[in-house]
Amino acid sequence: MITIKRTLYVLAVVAILLGIYGFGSRLLFGERDVNYGSYVNWGLWVAMYLFFAGMAAGSVMVASLDYVFQVALFRGTGKYALWAAVVTLPGALTLIGFDLGHMERVWKVYLQPNFTSLLAQLVWAYSTFLVVVVIAVILAIQDRRTALRRVMIAALVMAIFVSGGVGALLGVNAARVSFQNAMLPAQFPVLNLSSGVALMLVMIGFFGVVADAERRRMLVRVLSLTLVVLLAVKAYFLWVDYSQALYGQTVEAVAVAEQVLFGPYAWAFWNVQLGLGIVVPAIVLLMPSTSRRAPVAGLIGIFVLVGLAVGRTSIIFPALAFPEFEGLTDAFTGPHLGLDYAPSLMEWSVTIGIVGLSTLAYLVGTDRLPLLKNTSEVAS
């Protein structure tokens, strides 16, 4: 069906092939080839877990406009957002699963949970969330809108809960001063909704989610303005976070902020997260002509998603670049006992492979699922 879809199929397959090395290394040799360790214990996979889980939660929020709030303009778009949640959430869970030192012990959190642990609560919440979203897709296929609306209400509540819960998981980390931000549980639902809106723009821009040209134009315009508002809120959060850290003069918080703003992560913050992910999208999306050019809006949606992904790394990487107490790195040295973290080839391989698997799953769904394939059409 048309060039863009074939291109996406090819890119997805290539990404999966590139991921074979990482999957094989992780499953056969454990964490031998990763660059995180005992001091930097969270790396690329945790950051991308936050991003993928955020896309899933944000997609459910967008789907609720159709299935819960029954907004006429969004009618028919909810099924695409739901399917996006189905293919991104397993990717998130796979990434965080690969990050575990002993993946084979994951059963313990289900059979021997400690529900006073926020981490255990999130594992159960995300697992339940995935089941609820799958049930919603099944009901959508069966066109049982009354039952679907009830399930989607539960899914929407869970999407907000897991979004805020991730922020809380970081915020209660007493060992990392830069994580102790009371705004994090409020920030993540906004960031996740931004990713859901951006992903919907991508689907409208490159897939025939809406056949009627005038309705598509209106939908792109509404989503564009909504995304600009969300990006403005994100920019405000960034200003609050870093200005507060610098003004408060807490040693670790200042050091982390300086790493992001002026240090080794500055290029990613200013050029990608702020420039490519906020400024350029805001300018283009505010142009009235963008609403008549859906592929342009779809491309800008990709820019926003890239900026949000880099934003997750800006939360995780700099905060772990400093020892939990002075002298730690001098007392113990060795493999995986350093603070200079950069993702290894194997970590990139796994991440690219999961992006490919999620993309391929979405494409196959648009071609094979009766719910999607009857109206799905890719723009050339």
Describe the protein in words.
- With 380 residues, the protein is mostly helical.
- It has one domain (35-343): Formate dehydrogenase/DMSO reductase fold, CATH 1.20.1630.10.
- It has 14 helices and no strands.
- It has helices spanning 3-29, 44-67, 78-99, 108-111, 118-141, 145-171, 184-206, 213-248, 251-261, 266-286, 294-316, 328-331, 345-368, 370-373.
- The protein starts with a helix and ends in a 7-residue tail after the last helix.
CATH topology heading = Formate dehydrogenase/DMSO reductase fold
What is the CATH C-level name?
Mainly Alpha
Radius of gyration: 21 Å
Low-confidence stretches: 374-380
Q: Which CATH architecture is right? A: Up-down Bundle
Number of domains: 1
Look at the structure and name the CATH superfamily: Formate dehydrogenase/DMSO reductase domain
Task: Look at the helices and sheets and give the structural class.
Answer: mainly alpha
Roughly what percent helix? over 70%
Strand content: under 5%
What characteristic shape results from the CA principal axes?
globular
H/E series: HHHHHHHHHHHHHH
Number of helices: 14
State the main characteristics:
mainly alpha, Formate dehydrogenase/DMSO reductase fold, 14 helices, 0% strand, disordered C terminus, single chain, 380 residues
